[in-house]
Amino acid sequence: MNPTIKDVAKKANVSIATVSRILNKQPGYSVKTKERVLEAIKELGYQPNAVARGLINKRTQTIGVLFPDVSSMFSSDLLKGIEDIAHERGHSVIVCHTTLSGQRTMKYLQLLNEKRVDGIIFTSEAMTEEYYNVLKEMNIPVVLLATQSYRYPLPYVKVDDKHAAYSAVSYLIQKGHHNIGMISGDINDQLAGLPRIEGYKQALLDRGIPFDEKKVVVSRGFRYEDGIAQLPKLLKQAKDLTAVFAASDEIAVGALSAAYELGIRVPEDLSIIGYDNLKIAEMAIPPLTTLAQPLYEMGKAGTEMLLDMLETGQAVESRVMPHSIVERRTVKPLS
Amino acid sequence: MNPTIKDVAKKANVSIATVSRILNKQPGYSVKTKERVLEAIKELGYQPNAVARGLINKRTQTIGVLFPDVSSMFSSDLLKGIEDIAHERGHSVIVCHTTLSGQRTMKYLQLLNEKRVDGIIFTSEAMTEEYYNVLKEMNIPVVLLATQSYRYPLPYVKVDDKHAAYSAVSYLIQKGHHNIGMISGDINDQLAGLPRIEGYKQALLDRGIPFDEKKVVVSRGFRYEDGIAQLPKLLKQAKDLTAVFAASDEIAVGALSAAYELGIRVPEDLSIIGYDNLKIAEMAIPPLTTLAQPLYEMGKAGTEMLLDMLETGQAVESRVMPHSIVERRTVKPLS
DNA sequence: CTGAAAGCGCTAACAG
DNA sequence: CTGTTAGCGCTTTCAG
């Protein structure tokens, strides 16, 4: 069995209180005792029991992160940022894959409560009343990552989706494209679906290009398969498109594949711009021009916010992260 | 604050022992008290404190998983399998990104010990004496995932790398290729580096094709960038190759990109086979033929093993998982 | 500067 | 069937 603080105390001939003080760098002991204790610790290979500490401190130094079954590349960029900061600031992270069904999300929320995590990062999924209620009950800091809620006062970190989509489409227009299609994600998704369509629409309108609903096709998700399925559909219902804006990189790469099958050359015959800037954007053939979300930084920022709330007890401000265009080779300038 | 078992006991007019029994489904109470207690629990919204439980039971229902900074796609497939089984069997998972430096691995190991996790899954990285010693000290089950150790008696789950590489190259030969190159990962990697080269060599020799070291080029890692850099080098030092075996899908996709830049058509001018069967293999243009490792199943299997050890206290047997060839479109049969 | 003792929330004998 | 009690390993008053 692991040695306990008691063993250390006995070995060093002091009380456990003294050992505890030394462990926690509190004042109240002579240099000599400190040395003796430190030596006992080393000799025994003593490691404090975080469980016992958690019980009394009411802090577990652990946070929970909920991921829906979104593209794993998307999630893992976020996770990396989260884990880096959490570790740096002395916290562990418990990952929870909630998949689609809310049931599992509820189970996880309950679990995280039982484990007494210090805070929760809720990613990508929409916040529901049910979730919010239990979160409120738990009475711990929560931050929304790559999602947000109008209804509930939870701090978030995300990109401005509408604005980002606007930028992507504006970029296309600047490059001389006028006949631009869009492959959207789920239109019922108030967070990543609709706003991007609105950004697309707005960009068009602002340049005096009429919006034509035939030019946007909506899929159920944001996956590769959606891109594969939707590009042909889009091309059929909207003629002579010179460019398409895909609502995610996975969709864009799917579109790239579909185009390849159709014998349509990208970017010679058709320009494509994606959204996210995942690793696959870089790896695509040809490399995908895309609207970049700083996923890794978002993960870091969200975690910073969470831990700040934890430490200060204060609310923090939401952060809208900057997006940018990463120019690669799927958009051809039109003369 | 969260209500405690005491509150429940008071409200239901019973002792905390009775509540505890009911919570743990142990015998020893009437139906009536049970109902009363259950109602009190519901009314208070009581949730047992897993930290307190962990302290007394010496079980935290939590496992730790260590990932080096391997391709995130690779890790996240594993993680998904791990998390699914862990959750199904009532455990949470703490993720630890160890990056490259062993220092961080040691810190994590120590952390996981302090948190008193019930078991550890150690992925991809080579087991060192230093790690093994602390792991042994911790005295909890450990399983190696996508790695193995000759020196230390730790159960593992992985694919037979040499055999898998042998299969991949044999496949190429069956398709009529004789002049086959290889882009290897780090040759100093005893687990994923060398064995795959040996499999390549063996497959050649078994068909009477002489091995020529000019035909294999080794990179430092298994990343996309390595593929990009190494293909041109390989093509320069080995003429008239008709096919290449890449030691990972990322390398293969990098090779695909490099070929595209060079104006080499795949598979018309050059066939390529990858290794892993990540999602990107499917998404590549053209879709990548590859040697599939069942990553998700491996994650599941490893976790099953770990939890079995935990529950039974018995050692478990290592598992060599089946590999297979996923035929897509980067290998052209030679007449 | 140091120790004794209470108690975090829970489980597990041991009594009754 | 039910309650009392002693800890699990630690932090933290409160005395000295």
UniProtKB/TrEMBL annotation, chains A, B:
Asked if the Swiss-Prot or TrEMBL record annotates the protein with the keyword Amino-acid biosynthesis, the reply is no
Keywords (alphabetical) are:
DNA-binding, Transcription, Transcription regulation
| Domain called HTH lacI-type: residue spans | 3-57
Protein name per UniProt? LacI family transcriptional regulator
Q: Which organism is it from?
A: Bacillus taeanensis
* InterPro entries the UniProt entry points to: HTH_LacI, LacI/GalR-like_sensor, Lambda_DNA-bd_dom_sf, Peripla_BP_I
Q: Name one GO molecular function term.
A: DNA-binding transcription factor activity
